[in-house]
Amino acid sequence: MTAKQVYASLRALACGERAASLERFVQAVPGGYGEGDRLLGCTVPDQRKIARQFRELPTNEIEKLLASPWHECRLTGLLILVDQFEQAAKPKNPTRVSDCRIIVEFYLANLTAVNNWDLVDSTAPKILGAWLVEHPSERDVLERLGASQVLWERRVAVLATFPLIRKQEFTEILRLAEHLLDDTHDLMHKAIGWMLREMGKRDPSQLENFLKKYARVMPRTMLRYSIEKLSKEVRAKWMHR
């Protein structure tokens, strides 16, 4: 199995018309956050099928996909990596910890390839987040990524808290949300608001306490996302603040 074979499989499903639409979707247009990215025009379901076909792709070949100028090559490579992590993490694997650590370290070493919201959202919770659930002593990586000047690394930090939130562990998202209140990018406002909303679904009091402290200074998009699942009357109250 090689990266060239993956690219050929993707190329066979390319669609110029769809590529033009996807360019706008991931802002791969002049002035957009994904400016300069190149799209083949493959659907995500097709990419997932190809990722399953190449789930045993060697790491050095995945690295070639991640270095590709084509968005779909990077996403498919990352989907393969997610699959490999999930296979490695199965309890029956006798070397699960060492195998998973290798994949996490590879992921962190190649974050320059994780350079759009869909690439982040498809991988950060499932690789880094899943790892940190079982390795709390290593969660300081979230603080480091959250302080990065790179938008996508900050989003990785926030999305990686999703599995922790599902486990009723809110310390990390609350710390990141507070630290990133002044973040200027709309994609960060949406990501943080989304994770706060997920926290609120599990523990409404945690969300309420955060909002009491920060609703007046939160970016409006962040606030709107965080209260999306509350009643109309409660949403109006917080938005009025």
Output the keywords.
241 residues, mainly alpha, Leucine-rich Repeat Variant
Question: Can you summarize this structure?
Answer:
Helices cover 66% and strands 0% of the residues. By secondary structure, it is mainly α. Pfam families: DNA_alkylation.
Describe this structure in words.
The protein is mostly helical and 241 residues long. It has two domains: 1-112, no CATH class; 124-241, Leucine-rich Repeat Variant (Alpha Horseshoe). Helix content is 66%, strand content 0%. The chain has helices spanning 3-11, 16-25, 44-53, 59-66, 71-88, 96-109, 117-121, 125-134, 140-146, 151-159, 162-166, 171-179, 186-202, 204-214, 220-226, 232-240. It is globular, with a radius of gyration of 19 Å. This is DNA alkylation repair enzyme. InterPro entries: ARM-type_fold, DNA_alkylation. It holds the Pfam family DNA_alkylation.
Please report the number of helical segments.
16
| CATH fold-level name of the largest domain | Leucine-rich Repeat Variant
- Classify the helix fraction into a percent range: 55-70%
**Beta-strand percentage?**
under 5%
Q: What structural category arises from helix and sheet content?
A: mainly alpha
| Helix and strand pattern | HHHHHHHHHHHHHHHH
**Distance linking N and C termini:** 57 Å
List the helices and strands and how they pair.
Elements: H1 3-11, H2 16-25, H3 44-53, H4 59-66, H5 71-88, H6 96-109, H7 117-121, H8 125-134, H9 140-146, H10 151-159, H11 162-166, H12 171-179, H13 186-202, H14 204-214, H15 220-226, H16 232-240
